[in-house]
Amino acid sequence: MSSKFKLAGIEMKYFIPIFLVIIICTALGKLPAGMLGALPLMIVIGVIFDFIGNKTPIIKDYLGGGPIVIVFLSAFLVYYNLIPEKALNIMVNFTSKESFLDFYIAALIVGSILGMNRNLLIKAALGYLPVILGGVVVSLLLTGVVGLITGYGFLKAIFFIAIPIMGGGMGAGAIPLAQIFSESFKQTPTELLAIMVPAVALGNALAIVCGGLLDKLGKKYPSFSGNGKLLKSQEEIVEKNEENKKIEYEELGIGLVIATTFFAFGSLLSKFIPVHSYALMIISVAICKLLGVIEPYYESCCSKWFNFVVKNFTIPLLVGVGVAYTSIEQVISSFSLIYFILVVTTVVGAIIGTAIVGHFVGFYIIEGSITAGLCMANMGGTGDVAVLSVANRMSLMPFAQISSRIGGAFMLLLTSLIINFIR
């Protein structure tokens, strides 16, 4: 039975009828709205693209395989208008407006943190912010120097390419940065965004590719990789997290309730504290973990819910990332040689800086570069999902979110301070 070919765990004699029903509904405009239509369509598209990516030479070996193919082939479907508008709107709305991405991120953050050993969380947090800073400094300076050498300009390369890429994506990065820059550079935010948006989009694409390459590098040089563990000292305490593997259905429901409640609490706090709700959720969960206010049984429920969500919802979410957040037009429009070199320099600089500092604070080079480097260079939560997926390190989502949310806020603050010095 195990030798039969399956997609999404389903034999072809069942998968093909499922596929035909969903595709016919899509073509005839009869796909149900909301989750009922979006999920099955995203699953059937995603598992096919995942299979292609995992079987394609070079892509499967060096570029991350299925996840990266899911994101970019889904984006190409939109670019070439191969998805009916009604079905596209259903998927886009489900991913963004109907909070499928938030639902997924909440499960990952809460489950990952509560399923983490308390001592490990303390050790990792103390070293993590210096690693982010190391990546930012090397990335900005290296990009500035290359910009100077190529004639693009030292400050122009830093402010219009490096900082937007390292600044937390679009809503938390490029858009507020354009407002900050408009006064100092005497250009409108719209003009600045025309330069910055392609950098952010291309930087996100390169970060995803580099996630797959770093995973491959870790397999070739095992001493560089913790295979999903961030700290070199983590082996001695990780065994405690392997208990109670048997799953009861009720435990998944408990994990769902706790994860979504933490998300709601983060949103509530954001009404009073000017910090992104994701960051506040991370802080809230971490405080509860550090203080031990949640009993181990409920922590285990959240951890099991996290594993269930990763196993079943990652592929459809990556389709959502492709159709809703990945613009092929922006990536294509950014392809001039110097511009491309500067974007590559920014992402590579982030990897180098985090690898160096991470090594000295006891992080594995691969895990430190992926979380504190690439997850600073991608487009926030959606980029985190894609990068960690291609790198096969979804358990590092809490640290990725620290990079995207707290790190992004740090970049806005740092940029404001730098602007004041150069005026």
From TrEMBL:
It comes from Fusobacterium mortiferum. The keyword Hydrolase does not apply. InterPro entries: 2-OHcarboxylate_transport (IPR004679). Keywords: Membrane, Symport, Transmembrane, Transmembrane helix, Transport. This is Citrate:sodium symporter. GO terms for molecular function: organic anion transmembrane transporter activity; symporter activity. Belongs to the 2-hydroxycarboxylate transporter (2-HCT) (TC 2.A.24) family. One of its GO terms (cellular component) is plasma membrane. The chain crosses the membrane at residues 12-29, 62-83, 103-121, 128-152, 158-180, 192-214, 277-294, 306-325, 337-366, 402-422.
